[in-house]
Design goal:
Strand content: 15-25%
Number of strands: 8
Distance between the termini: 64 Å
Strand order of the largest sheet: 1-2-3-5-4
Helix content: 25-40%
Largest sheet: 5 strands, antiparallel
Oligomer: single chain
Number of helices: 6
Order of helices and strands: EEEHEEEHHEEHHH
Number of domains: 1
Shape: globular
Length: about 200
C-alpha cells in the first residue's frame, strides 16, 4: 500500500490529486468520498481506449492502472509537467493572471483537432479548471485535458460510427467554448480592456 503524506496538488468536489509518493512522473487521483462517478467513468474510458489499441494522444494523460493508498483507492496517471519540470497549471490560472484568452486559442484548436482525430469523447466536466497548459518549450504550449473524459453512451460505438462521434465532439466543443468565453476570468479581462479604452 502506498503511503501518501503530502498535501494534494489539486482537488475538486469529487476527487483529490497527489504526486505519486514513489514516482514524481505520476499522479494519483483519489475520491474524496467512497464513490466517485468521475473515477468510474474515467476508468472505463481508459480501458476501452486501450482496447482500441491505436490511440496515442499527448493531449490526455497516460493511464497506468489502479493502486491502493492510505487515503483510499486511486487512479494512476501521468503527472503533467512543463519542460522545466514544474507542474503545469490550469488554463483558468493563466486567465486570472491576465494572460489574454487569445494567447491560448491555437492550443485550444490543436486540442479540438486531437479529439477529433482520436475520437476522444469528453463531457460537461471538461472545464478551464481541468485543462492544463503544458509548456513544452519557452515559446510553445500544449493543452492537456486531465478530467471530463468519457461518455458511456458513445464509447460503445466509437469504431462503428466515427462520423457521429466527430459530430458529437464538435457540438460539445462549441458548448465548451461558449462557456469559456462566458467564464468569470474572460469576462474580467474584457471589462478591464473596456475600462482601459474609455476616454479620460
Amino acid at each position: 500500500m502506498l503511503q501518501i503524506t503530502k498535501n494534494p496538488i489539486g482537488m475538486d468536489k469529487e476527487r483529490m490529486c497527489f504526486v505519486h509518493p514513489e514516482d514524481p512522473r505520476l499522479a494519483i487521483k483519489i475520491a474524496r468520498n467512497e464513490v466517485s462517478q468521475q473515477s468510474q467513468r474515467e476508468i472505463k474510458f481508459y480501458r476501452r481506449l486501450k482496447k482500441r489499441g491505436n490511440v496515442t494522444d499527448m493531449h490526455i494523460p497516460g493511464f497506468h492502472g489502479l493502486c491502493e493508498t492510505n487515503r483510499g483507492s486511486g487512479i494512476v496517471v501521468d503527472l503533467v509537467r512543463n519542460y522545466d519540470g514544474e507542474i503545469s497549471r490550469p488554463l483558468n490560472w493563466y486567465l486570472a493572471q491576465g494572460y489574454p484568452i487569445e494567447d491560448f486559442e491555437p492550443g485550444l484548436e490543436e486540442l479540438r483537432q486531437s479529439f477529433l482525430k482520436n475520437l476522444i469523447i469528453f463531457n460537461h466536466e471538461l472545464t478551464i479548471g481541468n485543462l492544463l497548459v503544458k509548456k513544452i518549450s519557452v515559446t510553445r504550449i500544449r493543452m492537456v485535458a486531465i478530467d471530463g473524459l468519457g461518455d458511456l453512451g458513445a464509447l460503445d460505438w466509437l469504431d462503428v460510427f466515427p462520423f457521429l462521434v466527430r459530430r458529437k465532439i464538435n457540438r460539445r466543443w462549441q458548448g465548451f467554448i461558449n462557456r469559456l468565453y462566458l467564464s468569470r476570468e474572460v469576462r474580467q479581462q474584457r471589462e478591464a480592456l473596456e475600462q482601459h479604452s474609455l476616454p479620460e
